[in-house]
Every structure is written in C-alpha cells, then in structure tokens.
Task: inverse folding
C-alpha cells in the first residue's frame, strides 16, 4: 500500500468523521444536533433535525468508510452528496473563494474523495459515486421542498378575531 494513499484516506476520512460528529453530538466544538437543526432550518433545509441527522451520518459514516477503505463507492457517494448540498444551500451563491464563504474547499474535498475512490475501485466507480451523491443531494432537497409545501397546504390559519384564547376555551 502506498503511504500517501493511506495518509489521504485517514486524513480526509478522519476529518469527515469529526465534522459529522460535530453535527450529531457536539463533539470537537460542534453545535450538536439541536444547534445544527436550527442552522439548517434557517437555511431552508426543513425539517432541520432530519437534515442534520442525514448530514451528520453521511459525513461521519462516509468518513469512517473512507478512512478504513471499506465500501469506497458508498463513502464517495455519501461525502459527495453532503458537500454538494453544502455548495447548493450555503456556499454556491458566494462564489468560489473560501475567504468569501465560497465553495472552493467543498469542491476540493469532493475531488480528493473521488480521486481516492478511483484509485481503489476505478474510474467507473468514482464517476458513479459522484453522480449518485449529486443525484441524492438534489432528490433529498426536492423531497423536502414537496413535504414543506404539503404541510403549508394543510395549515389553515384561523381568521383574526375568531380564535379563542386559552382562557376563553376553558370557560366555554
């Protein structure tokens, strides 16, 4: 085994594990599930808790797979999907440069991850993992948007002046 390949796997995979556990458990200075859920809600990633769990598990799980060299295409798909979602919802509108909050770091992580997958499994698996990650990111966003629309349609606000206050409801 090449030492440089091992170092890349351990470094990138290990950092993804850390990044995911920041979201899930608040480890390594993270905000934990509640803080991440609120942040995701503010970005329009609703429901925030479900999206935070999905991102945290994808990062921690995909990172662990990458670091150990197990199920590399799955690792590539999971990590590409979360980084694509980060680009689409956080960094994309800010241009490429990280100094402006842009997407360059996410793109480097995607490229490095898929290069590792290619090195282990071949070009076809790397391209498939990348495509699956991007498609999964888009599909998850579309599903969440449809669910949010359904909830909005089911909600019927009570016209002003017709709602009972809790005290009036108890008295009647």
Result:
């Amino acid at each position: 085994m090449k030492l440089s390949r091992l170092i890349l796997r351990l470094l990138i995979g290990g950092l993804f594990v850390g990044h995911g556990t920041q979201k899930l458990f608040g480890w390594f200075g993270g905000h934990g599930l509640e803080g991440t859920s609120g942040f995701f809600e503010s970005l329009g990633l609703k429901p925030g808790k479900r999206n935070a769990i999905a991102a945290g598990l994808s990062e921690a799980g995909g990172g662990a797979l990458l670091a150990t060299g197990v199920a590399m295409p799955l690792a590539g798909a999971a990590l590409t999907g979360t980084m694509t979602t980060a680009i689409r919802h956080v960094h994309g509108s800010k241009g490429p440069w990280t100094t402006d909050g842009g997407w360059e770091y996410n793109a480097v992580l995607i490229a490095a991850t898929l290069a590792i997958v290619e090195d282990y499994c071949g070009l076809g698996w790397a391209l498939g993992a990348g495509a699956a990650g991007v498609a999964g990111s888009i599909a998850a966003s579309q599903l969440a948007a449809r669910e949010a629309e359904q909830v909005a349609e089911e909600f019927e606000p009570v016209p002003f002046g017709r709602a009972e206050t809790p005290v009036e409801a108890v008295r009647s």
In short: The mean pLDDT is 89. The CA atoms of residues 77 and 138 lie 13 Å apart. The chain has seven helices and no strands. The radius of gyration is 20 Å.
